[in-house]
Amino acid sequence: MEPIFNNTENAFALKTDSQLDRAYFLFKLISNQPLVRIGTAVTNFAIKAHLPVESLIRATVFDHFCGGTSEEECLPVVDKMFEKGVCSVLDYSGEGKEEEEQFDATLEKILKILNFVKEKKAIPFAVFKPTGFGRIDLYEKVGSGDALTDDEQAEWKRVIHRFDTICKKAHEMDVALLIDGEESWMQDAADTVVADMMRKYNKQKAVVYNTLQMYRWDRMEYLKQLHVDAKAQGFHIGMKLVRGAYMEKENKKAEENGYTSPICESKEATDKNFDIAVAYMLDNLDCMAVFAGTHNEASSYKVAEIMKEKGISNNDARVWFGQLYGMSDHISFNLAKVGYNVAKYLPFGPVRDVMPYLIRRAEENTSVAGQTSRELSLLKQERKRRKM
Length: 388
Fold this sequence. Notes:
The protein has 16 helices and eight strands. The chain has helices at 8-11, 17-30, 33-48, 54-65, 71-83, 100-118, 136-144, 150-173, 184-201, 219-233, 247-257, 267-282, 297-309, 329-337, 351-367, 371-387; strands spanning 86-92, 125-128, 176-179, 208-213, 237-242, 288-293, 319-324, 342-348. Strands 1-8-7-6-5-4-3-2 form an eight-stranded parallel beta sheet. Helix 13 links the parallel strand 6 (288-293) and strand 7 (319-324). Helix 2 runs antiparallel to helix 16. The model has no long low-confidence stretch (mean pLDDT 92).
C-alpha cells in the first residue's frame, strides 16, 4: 500500500484552526510525564472534593477526547465524521460501578443506545464493558473457579442475564456489538460468557464481538482454540484486536502476587502478536470478522496489504479499522478516504464519570513511545501548511 498517513490536510479537515491549536497544546502537555502525573493527582483530588473544575475539563481534554455528555450531544460529531467516511462507536464511559442498581442502569443505557444506533448508518456498532454489568471481584472469583455463595450465584446469574439481554437485542436489530476487554484477572469469566453469546447469536454471521488484548502472550492460543470450537459448533467469531490498555496494572499485580505476568516481554513481541492475530483472522474470514483497533501505522499498512493480497475488498463488512476519537486522525481519515471501513470510538457521559477514561488516555499517550511525538509532528505540519 502506498504511504498515505502523512496527508494532514485530509487528516485534520474537520478541525478549525482553534481546535488544531488546542490539540497541539494538549499533546504538548501530555508529552510531559511529570506534568501528567501531577495533573492526574490534582484532577482526581478536585473531582473527589467536588471542586468546580468540570467546565475547565470540558473545555480542554474532555472535548478533545469525548463526543459529549449524552448520545444526542454526540450527533454533530458523528455526522461530521461520517461526511468524511468515518463511522462512530458510541462508548458510554461510566465505569468502576459496584451496585446492582448501577449495573441495571447501565443495561438500560446500552439498550437505549442500541435503539439510537439502529437509526444511524454512521454508527454501525454498539459497545459495553463487562464491568458495566457486574463487579470485577465477582468476575475474578468466577474465573478462578472458587465456590460462590448462594448470593453470589444469584448475582452471577443477573450478570449473565444482562449480557444475554443486550446480545439478543443486538441480534434482533442486526447491530454489531463490541464487548471490551479488561484486566486479565477478570477476563477469563468474561471470555466464557461472551463465547456463549457467540454460540447463541453468531450462527449466521458475527454480531457479538469479544476483545483480545494482544499484549497478552496467551491470546493467540485462545483465538485458535475458539476457532476450533467455532468450526465444530457452527458459529462465527467476532473479535476486536487491540494491543492493550492495562499494562502497568497487570505487571504490578503479577509482581505483588508472585505469578508470571500475562504481558509480552517487549513492545516488539506485542506488535508481532497483534500482526499475527490479524493475519490469522484475515485467513479465516469464512467464519470470522475482525475489528483491528490500532494506532500503529505499520500494523494498519499490513492489514491493508494482506487484504490486497487476498483480494479482500476495502469495504468488506467483515473487516474494520478502529481508533479512539481525538487520536490518530491521520490513520482514520486517510484510510476512510480510500474506502476502508473505519470507526472511531466516541466516548461520552457525564464529565466526572468519564474521568477514569480521560486519565488513561493521558497516561497511555505519555507511556507509548512515539505516540505523542507523532501526533505533535502531524499537528505542527498541518498548522504550518495552513499558514502558507
